[in-house]
Amino acid sequence: MRALRLINMFYPKIIQGGMGVGVSNWVLARAVSIAGQLGVVSGTALDIVLTRRLQSGDPDGHVRRAFDHFPFPDIARRVWEQYFVEGGIPKGQPFKAVPMMTAAPHQSILELHTLANFVEVFLAKAGHAGAVGINFLEKIQMPTLSCIFGAMLAGVDSILMGAGIPRAIPGVLDLFSKGEPAKLKLDVLGATPEQEYSVSFDPKTFCGGEAPALKRPNFLAIISSATLALTLARKSTGKVDGFIVEGETAGGHNAPPRGIMQLSEKGEPIYGARDIPDLKKIAEIGLPFWLAGSYGAPGKLAEAIQLGAVGVQVGTAFAFCEESGVAPEIKTQVIESALAGNLCVTTDPLASPTGFPFKVLNVEGSVSCQAVYTNRVRVCDLGYLRHPYRKEDGTLGYRCPAEVVSNYVRKGGHENDVNGRKCVCNGLFATIGLGQTLPGGKIEPPLLTAGDDVVNLKRFLKPGAKTYTAQDVLDALLA
Q1: How many CB atoms lie under 10 A from the CB of residue 50?
Q2: Beta carbons of 166 and 147 less than 8 angstroms apart
Q3: Helix (H) / strand (E) containing 245
Q4: What is the distance between the alpha carbons of residues 434 and 312, in angstroms, rounded to a whole number?
Q5: How many domains does the chain have?
Q6: Contact by Cβ (8 Å): 454, 316
Q7: Contact call for residues 356 and 350 (beta carbons, < 8 A)
Q8: pLDDT digit string (tens) for 170-202?
Q9: What is the CATH number of the domain that holds 24?
Q10: What is the pTM assigned to this prediction?
Q11: Where are the alpha helices (DSSP H) in 56-168?
Q12: Which of 207, 218, 229, 255 is 20 to 30 A removed from 270 (C-alpha atoms)?
């Protein structure tokens, strides 16, 4: 089995990052995969992405095409009937709510998550033989199992996961490939050592009695230190197939600095020598690795290979190309600002409810503007970054530092924890043009994330051009 996995392992020079909610969509991943590299779709909140695409009318019929290939047509039919709106919902009408995930979800929620991940991977893989991966966050635990199973039903080639220590995921892939049930331990605030909370998923139950044998995808752990790499290689429940070594200049969530958090005069986390990953020790583990974080420039691929890496992962450069899911008007705004030299990225230690530092791209009209942030009415109606916590009776509750302050405090949270927290969920949906309509007709403001390298987007623009493609990025990186 080990030899088979090594034969099947795909070693691309470039991995396209799995960014945000719907930024790394199937269109982008497919374009990169067709070009011979590893295209990656974001696996975050795909249930909401899917239902909002359906409520927007599925204008090009792509969702319908994927639904027709889902191996459980009754599930696809139920979801279609519940959410599809011919011609799309009228302007000013809010999207229909989707029930938030819990540790004991209704079967219909599991079906929706499974179907949504199948759809995104199926569309990314359709019509070519290239490899496609999907990216998940370890911190978002409750929907993980059903999402992984849906991606595997579509034949996903690689699972990428960071923002935590995903030791259990390789074993989950082994079990699902054989149609066996899996369980995932939940991190629960206030849980005592003798208490264990978990979520489970049984492919046989989901499939109605007999689960298909599925290809076991490669598992690539996104890490920031040799210590974590060694821990995952030695103590994971199954085989780790490689690492993506991500530095603090990468977009999205960053690993916190080691030791006590210290902030600069600008309020950003201070990273030091201890935070530089020891690539020699990582190489000694004997698994392939890719470098990420400001590796989107010509010559950086060769530099990474000289350092022992197989290649690089690049996100920000792809985030604003024509194929990405970022709304066109926002891409234009960001590219014009990059050309004018007035883009600014902040590593915000408070923005994300996860507690991880989060890269925020400061753009006019987004929640990075203090006035926009202050005037936005706090709400937690998507719930992907809620924290499970133990109630006095032992049952689970859920709270988010970005929700209404009084609700958060009523659930046992500390009022100091809410300062500066931003609704990442709603902000990221607005970034891809699927923001919720609020009372009065306003749309949720966007929240943009990007790596430090966003200031150099002009390197991908041809003379006189104001947009660029995924192929333009690949050409520049491989030059």
Answers
A1: 26
A2: no
A3: strand 242-246
A4: 30
A5: 1
A6: yes
A7: no
A8: 999 999 999 999 999 999 999 988 888 999 999
A9: 3.20.20
A10: 0.94
A11: 62-67, 73-83, 107-125, 144-153
A12: 229
